[in-house]
Design goal:
The protein has a domain at about 40-245: q2cbj1_9rhob like domain (Jelly Rolls). Helix content is about 30%, strand content about 20%. The protein has helices at about 5-10, 20-30, 35-45, 50-55, 60-75, 105-115, 115-125, 200, 255-260, 260-265, 270-275, 295; strands at about 45-50, 90, 95-100, 130-140, 145-150, 165-170, 185, 210, 215-220, 225-230, 235-245. The strands form 2 sheets. Strands 1-9-6-11-4-3-2 form a 7-stranded antiparallel beta sheet. A 4-stranded antiparallel beta sheet has the order 5-10-7-8, with no helix packed on it. The longest helix has 17 residues, at about 60-75.
Length: about 300
Amino acid sequence: MDSTATTAFAGAFRPEPEDHALERVRAEIVRLGLQSHAFDLDTQGFTVLTPEDLDAGDLPTRLREALLDIAEAESGHRPDLDGAGPSGTRTAIGEGQFLAQVLFRDRAFEEALLNEKALALITYLLGENCTLSSLNAMLKSAGRDNLELHTDQVGTPAPFPAYAQVANATWVLSEYSRDHGSILFVPGSHRWARHPNRDEAVDLSLAVPVEARPGSLIVWHGNTWHGALARKTPGLRVSLIGYYCRWYLLPQVLYRQITPAEVLARNPARFSTLMGRRTPYAGPDLDGPHPSLSLAQLSQYS
């Protein structure tokens, strides 16, 4: 554990009176030994947990196999991780096969949402009442085009709030490198609180590519500028993409309305919160008890 990061992490908190949410969030970060990753999120706008950091056992393997099963069911053939892949199939985030709304197609995805280290960092960014906006996957194949730099603050005019409104936790399920079509980030860009302009969006020299092994996790602040390189080698880059938002924002998928009762029953209360069913807003499709509106407004960690 880097002592500078530990000191900076501890000193970054100046709790308001009775800000118990902040205390709980901070305690969980410390319990899990994630101080350096929280520091990275504060200073760089992103962090990478190695497989050893994440310590998720065989979950990454099960996630990858579940995604290959879904891809096979949708395309009629099982993707070859080392072969040519579905080259030429264009999606909004690159060439390959995009798998939408995978959450309820295998229980491994429920486990991924509840992974304590992933959830602790997302909570650090978005607060205890944050919700899942969408859970999708990408099997990225070789192609020619880079993905331009952008933020995840879709539709938000500048200046953005300084604290995250949305955040991403992406499970790395195959090798990530420059030649494999890695994601890249502009370190510290979350502090600029704006979208890149047209010239900046295509200037990938501003960004640093992520090198990561299968079983890693990449977490980033929604303000952070990021893009991706075109994959230059045969095979597929496999990613499970968890997109989260604060409880008061409209998620991409209205999980509160579509989550099966048996899924809610077999998971802890935090899962119900992630599905948007424990917000301070009342409604017939919510589960109780709910946090009070005044408590949720007290802190960015609520």
